[in-house]
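Late entry, evening session. Most of the bench is empty. Finally got around to the prediction I had been postponing all week. Sequence below, unchanged from the version circulated by S.P.
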Amino acid sequence: MSADSIGGSPRAAPAARARAQAAVRLALGLVLVAALALGLGAGGSRASSESSPQALIAQPVIGLPVEKPVLIGSTPGESAGESWGYATRGREFQIVRYEPAGGWQIQPPARDAHGAPLLGFKPAPGPLGGRTTPEGGVAIVGEDASKADQLLVRNPHGEFAEATPPATLAPGETLFAPNGEGVLMAPVDQPGAGTAVFIVPFEPQGRAQSTVLLYDGHSWSREPICSGPPDGSEGCGELPAGFRVLALDATSTDNAWLLAKTGAAGEALALFQRTTSGGEARWVRRALGASGSLGASFEQAAHSVEDPATHAHLSVTIAPLTNGQPLTATTEGVWIDGQLTISGSGEPSSFTLYYDIAKGTVAASWCSVPPAAASLCTNPLESSLPFGPYRSFAWGGGGPFGQRAITGLPNGVTLELAGSHFEPILGLGGEAGTRAGAAFSSPQEGWLAEPEQLPLTHLTTQPA
């Protein structure tokens, strides 16, 4: 880019101003990359080669074939490093794919139910309008040219196609939030049977979200969310009108979870798991731990604690995050994100916890709170979690709690779990990894998109 385009006149066109901003961001990014390579990052970051032999480096990438892409995830089981995103140009919906040998490239258009190129598709807003599976499955929620809800699905090694319209939707239900950013969706791999997709539909105001939809690649079915005992001995029970699903995630049809706000007084976190015991699929509540355990404490909305410095009794309120992606599942555990508010402390503090599936209890928690709430925290959390849109990626193995990356922190910072500690990974600034999404093929390889601007941020241990 020329120097003239960076220092243009005050009457420069919006496109020229955007190019100038991108150039400045790129220059700053290159300075950051140089600093990271020299180990000059913030204290505690993995920018220093002394802190990690696999230090992630943030590098800018320009020259994409689309404008304003949204990144949705990676499919490393199909091809190492493969990642996906999309963009909209007029009535044209563009899907992009990255693979190391060829870079980012536009893919063939999705097909409608008649096999013709799909026109007029508009994806749901926000970073969760599309999701991926490890083996190559992709699902994207949006609406067609007639404003009808629509789901696009890709099977591993296949093309994108319009799913059968969801005839199971009840009156007033929608596949994504009618206003604002909201999609509750999780695609999963079905070995030998393609991609399946779980979706929690949004209900009209005043009606509980009581159902999870399952698209199995051919047809749709409805699965109830139950308030009764997990064994089904008392049936599903009726959910209160205030019951609201906050997040949904799954690694398979046998390992699917949702996080809910029940609307019941005194309750904080409510975790539900899909079960098919008795031959009927339903979603049942799982306790976060036995009575008196750490997990049980997080199920209660309010606590009274003693300040060790003043011996005064303080009130602590627990709540799940209601933005971004507050639930992340692996084959071994489930991550839940939330916030703690301590009376007299002003702003809420962040927490994240790890639920061990095999043990059926919360195994550890991380909090950024004062000593008064230390009993709720087994580990410190040096950075607050995002209070706006963000993405979360997790993998089993590699440590006592697996591995995890959280995007969307201020200035393009990403948190990554190293052993039992979260460490910041410096980015290129701005809002990278927020509402324009992210894609991680592994803890050592990821992409962050910046809303409205380029470049992309490539997080890698092998910078070009």
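Two things to note before I forget:
Residues 339 and 350 are 4 Å apart (CA to CA).
The longest helix spans residues 14-37.
Will write this up properly tomorrow.
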